[in-house]
Automatic annotation (TrEMBL):
Family, similarity comment: Belongs to the nucleotide-sugar transporter family. UDP-galactose:UMP antiporter (TC 2.A.7.11) subfamily.
Protein name, per record: UDP-galactose/UDP-glucose transporter 5B
UniProt entry tagged with the keyword Transmembrane helix: yes
InterPro entries found in the cross-reference section: EmrE-like, SCL35B1-4/HUT1
Length: 346
């Protein structure tokens, strides 16, 4: 009769899982905090003596994706891994289109709402991730998870609808600006939830290497964003802007570098822990980003926004003390294990 595994043999497995979690959290936190500060600087801070604003968000998407695609191709070739697509090409394109729409909505929203407002609104990502998880992955969640999502949404709504008087958009003012900014944020949340969930589905449905997925999705994104720039007539104008403002060029170069590194951390996290777990480890990063942005760019807070922030982060951190989380139905468990319980959200 075979002896049962000893307790000591299970310890390295737990330690390995913990190290992977620390690696994922540290990587995402550091890269995305820098990324957030840079994207706000590029989209909301004027360049040059004439105070010109950079308006070409799709150009940022193109620069980010072409650098990520080049690095992932180099990794695949250097490690002699398979460069052929593992999944049908149209599935990579689905992730690519959704990701482009996500990033474009995110950059465009910064023209109308401040970075702290956008960052806190991202905490509502819980709802689209849960909805897409139910539709695409057939996952089931407890009622308390929906109640938490509702509380987070209420807090985000208060934060967005009651901005401080001094926190104005550099592009336009008034209620129209707020409505358009909120609409773009809703688009961002919906597309982003779909992107991470569909990536999770690809990793679970195919024996897919992280770099393989990154290469094909970013390659599609490069072609789509380049085509969009040509059709909009913005490619030459964007190039002219960065050629006249060298500090903007270096900001975009650094943004693309950080975006590339963060993409590898994001894909690693989604493949190792799942889409919902990726959403849960972002809460502290959001808080750090908001505080850093408020210090760096002098964003004022209204008392209503303080209440909204307390509701959001209080709900999310309270959730981390609850033991139960979302589960899939017994007949619909993914092949590689049960989904990680929801603790926090981005």
């Amino acid at each position: 009769m075979a002896e049962p595994p000893s307790l000591s043999s299970a310890v390295p497995v737990k330690d390995n899982k913990l190290l992977k979690g620390i690696f994922a959290v540290t990587g995402i936190m550091s890269t995305l905090v820098i990324y957030g500060v840079l994207q706000e600087k590029i989209m909301r801070v004027p360049y040059g003596p004439h105070k010109e604003y950079f308006r070409y968000s799709l150009f940022l998407v193109f620069c980010n994706r072409i650098s990520t695609s080049a690095v992932s191709a180099g990794v695949l070739l250097g490690s002699k891994k398979v460069l052929d697509p593992v999944a049908p090409l149209y599935k990579y394109c689905i992730v690519s289109v959704s990701n482009i729409l996500t990033t474009t909505c995110q950059y465009e929203a910064l023209k109308y709402v401040s970075f702290p407002i956008q960052t806190l609104a991202k905490c509502a990502k819980m709802i689209p991730v849960m909805l897409w998880g139910t539709i695409i992955m057939q996952k089931k969640y407890f009622m308390k998870d929906y109640a938490l999502a509702f509380l987070v949404t209420v807090g985000c709504s208060i934060f967005i609808l009651f901005p401080a008087a001094g926190d104005i958009s550099p592009y336009s003012r008034g209620r129209e600006s707020t409505v358009w900014g909120v609409s773009l944020m809703l688009g961002y949340l919906g597309f982003d939830g779909f992107t991470s969930t569909f990536q999770d589905k690809l990793f679970k449905g195919y024996d897919m290497d992280i770099h393989n997925q990154i290469f094909y999705t970013t390659l599609c994104s490069c072609m789509l964003s380049f085509t969009g720039l040509i059709l909009q007539g913005n490619l030459l104008m964007a190039i002219d802007f960065v050629s006249r403002h060298h500090d903007c060029f270096f900001d975009i170069l650094l943004l693309s570098t950080v975006a590339t590194v963060s993409q590898f951390f994001i894909s690693y996290t989604i493949r190792t822990f799942g889409a919902l777990t990726f959403a849960t480890i972002m809460t502290t990063r959001q808080l750090v980003s908001i505080l850093l942005s408020c210090v760096w760019f002098a964003h004022p807070f209204s008392w209503e926004q303080c209440i909204g922030a307390v509701i959001v982060f209080g709900s999310l951190y309270a959730k981390s003390f609850l033991k139960d989380g979302p589960k899939t139905s017994p007949s619909n468990h993914p092949a590689n294990g049960v989904s990680i319980p929801l603790k926090e959200n981005s």
